[in-house]
């Protein structure tokens, strides 16, 4: 059994709305501050198989934050019953629904909604469809795993070793030259470019397909 609790105060729920044992355990965890949730986290409780009346009063409750193990003592007749289970903090997010290979553009059909344990989500993970749709995979994106922002980027407009047009303009001067890209890059990326004529290496920002502008 599992119960997902959004990061809000379950003790303020309407009377009678906390009907399952998992819900009432979640409310007790919140009341005792046994686990603190961030704004985007939910609490999931999975109890080991135990037949207990859902209305049984909670006598005591312990949670090990390190392992997520839960132990509770419930008031049942003729004797109290102990129940155990696991508690986890999770985040709702979108992940690839299939393996996405380098060079592929991410589309809405490539993504699925899921929940992952907070510990499996890196600070730089992209969690919303808006952050991912239209991006190009720079590395393999595994199905069902949070996407590291470093593994995606704008669609490549310049590929390494390709010939590019170099532009440089001031109020009084405009220069155009041919260069060779030393790095891949998408719109807005700053990459290393070698001027074909002078052999000088410069930093330039990608402004279009095989087009760059020298960074001042």
Summary of the model, kept short:
This protein has 216 residues and is mostly beta strands. Helix content is 7%, strand content 45%. The chain folds into three domains: 89 residues, no CATH class; 63 residues, Antifreeze-like/N-acetylneuraminic acid synthase C-terminal domain (Type Iii Antifreeze Protein Isoform Hplc 12, Alpha-Beta Complex); 58 residues, SH3 type barrels, CATH 2.30.30.760.
What's the topology here?
Blueprint: E1 2-6, H1 21-31, E2 41-47, E3 57-63, E4 69-75, E5 81-96, E6 111-117, E7 125-126, H2 129-132, E8 136-137, E9 147-148, E10 152-153, E11 156-158, E12 163-170, E13 173-181, E14 185-186, E15 190-195, E16 201-208, E17 211-214
Parallel strand pairs: 12-17
Antiparallel strand pairs: 1-2, 2-5, 3-4, 4-5, 5-6, 7-9, 8-10, 11-14, 12-13, 13-15, 15-16, 16-17
